[in-house]
Amino acid sequence: MLNRLFIACLLITRAFAQNTPVLLPQPETVRYTDEKLPVSRLTVWIPASAPSEVRFALEELKAMLGESAGESIKKAPSAALATFQWVVREPGGALPEVSEMNGKSERERYKLTISGRGVRVDARTSAGLYYAVQTLRQLITGQGKTAFIPGVVIEDRPALTYRGVMMDFAHGGLPTVAEIKRQIDFLVRWKTNQYYFYNEVSIELKGYPAIGYRSGYTQAQIRDIIAYGKQRHMDVVPFLNLYGHLHELLRNEQYAGLAIGQYGHELDPRKPATNAVLKDWISQYAELFPGPFIHVGFDETWETKRIADDKDVRINAEDLWVQQLAFVEGELKKYGKTVLAWTDMNNYYPDIIKRIPEGVIPVLWEYKPDTVEINRYLNPILREKKPFFIQPAVSGWGHIYPDAAYTYDNIDLCLQAGVKHHALGFIHSVWTDPVEPFVRASWLFMAYGCIGAWQGSVPEKKHFTEMYSRVMYPKVAGEMQKAFDHLAAANASLDKCLGRNTNGMPRGTIIESWSNPFLPYYLKNTNEHAADFRNARKSGEAAQAELIGALAKCSSQDTAFIHSMIVTARLMAYTATRFLWAKTVCDRWNESMLVRKKNDFVVYDLAYPCHGLLVDVMDEAGELKTAYSEAWRSEYMPYRLNTMLGRFDVEYGLWQKLYLKVVSYRIENRSDHVADQPFDVLFKPDF
């Protein structure tokens, strides 16, 4: 580990000083030479007998080399004459296996040697070959006929065996299958090997036609995603909910009787019909997902505990939790599945870890950048000497754009704890609870965590956006780096203004971003934080400018992503604008009418049809609605889009009603009339 950290620091310095390629994740050892290999000299031999995973890796190599050189890479006449030589020493090994939990697996190990004569990859399995190709991709320098690969010897293997991202397919928009494939392509660049498909009832199940209708994925789509992942050495792991978080099921009258509460969130394990349903589900999920692992959730089962505490002393909530987990694990064991489950209920049941069935792997999740909080869940696992996974998150559940410092620190601390205590693996959560934010805004932070999981230590934060932008967006790296930094700054400024009144809702700025800015609390808050709101606007506008500049020069494959980020930047600037404009409107009216006692063209300033302050906000809200819809459709299915567009409609209505009230007030009074009430009292702005 210390060797990898030393090499990482050394090469970061070299990368900036000598413009050597940025390698993310940083390999275990790297030794550069003075040699260079022109990309145009590379030839590849793909034998007809090559396994499909090997063939895919080599075809991907040909494609990326061809893109860099500007022409197709030639096929070698024989293996001996190819300038790209490869050895895969063992068959199979495409995906992570349960047998690797001992931490001694060499499955993903590879050695990459580049000289002026050619390239050689020595890999234990096809996974090692594929990851060597991903590293080679980052080594290519320049474009066209002058593109070359520097001489280097790299030996590499991961610090953690299991490295995953959990994508939320239950709370927000549902990414299209094409977008899911883009996410997988993105994640494998950082050598991620598990893609956790978080599902409540968003996967089609036979015999339940009304559940997830037009708001989920068919089994054929899931099989397509699984196959796509396997080609890229990514295991698509089902992340199910087989106890709590099932409101989407239980709100239906047909299944409401399975709940422990009324139209609630949790199943009632005491009812035979409940486990009959689960047996059916488990058989279908086990058949659909061929991999060895299944995550069953079991988090946040507060409803059962509340009912037990408040209403029904006959319910022992802890016993029910253990009983249900044992039942689920026993059923899944029949299909050869290894079960993962969250451990947060340890907060309510202090002895729960020692009662977890032996075959269940506990998964510690903690999303705060707080070592004390992490250890509160980690220590009971360590006391019981249980193998475990650790799971931080991108803070996308609380902000339009994730809180960069909060997310980085949470990942840092969880990874440090995981490596120190020999965690089996690392899962990076991406939640979509507020619905509004685009997942694409989380990609930078997903990469940060995935890179850290391979290296065993996080990337160097100070230069991370620069290094990441150089790897991901070589044509527009400067613009993208500045855009990411401006977006982070915009969120930091908004975080000083909003986020204190969420009352159990997702923490962060987004819940208050649509609140009535004319309410007394918010007018006072805006007065106190006017400078912070202005800084948020400046940073949001600066991010837009950089992203718009990037559009003119970027690769065509990046345009949809950059358009999405522009909408994100506009939403952040708009959040600040609506609060500042409410203050400005009130200040303009009150200063004129109440202080100066003069109708000083105030109605003109507020309600001029093309440039009045009220019209400004209507214009931006209307334009944003269109841009948001376009960005949504490029990433998600239609499900929940109308819910989001409705926010823009209500927002537009607030300002349109105010505009009409001000115009009517002007018509009903003489032109020199002076009002004797503050703006917010006289017009009572409301939705």
Automatic annotation (TrEMBL):
Q: Name one Pfam family in it.
A: Glyco_hydro_20
Q: Which Gene3D superfamilies match?
A: Chitobiase/beta-hexosaminidase domain 2-like, Glycosidases
Q: What are its E.C. numbers?
A: 3.2.1.52
Please list the residue ranges annotated as the Glycoside hydrolase family 20 catalytic domain. Answer: 161-367
Keywords for the protein's UniProt record, in alphabetical order: Glycosidase, Hydrolase, Signal
Keyword ATP-binding among UniProt keywords: no
Q: Which InterPro entries match?
A: Beta_hexosaminidase_sua/sub, GH, Glyco_hydro_20_cat, Hex-like_dom2, HEX_bac_N
Cite the Beta-hexosaminidase bacterial type N-terminal domain residue spans from the record: 21-156
Per the UniProt entry, the signal peptide is 1-17
Q: Does the keyword Hydrolase apply?
A: yes
Name the catalysed reactions: Hydrolysis of terminal non-reducing N-acetyl-D-hexosamine residues in N-acetyl-beta-D-hexosaminides
What family is this protein classified in? Belongs to the glycosyl hydrolase 20 family.
Q: What is this protein called?
A: beta-N-acetylhexosaminidase
Q: Where does this protein come from, organism-wise?
A: Dyadobacter endophyticus
Question: Mind giving the lineage of the organism this protein is from?
Answer: Bacteria, Pseudomonadati, Bacteroidota, Cytophagia, Cytophagales
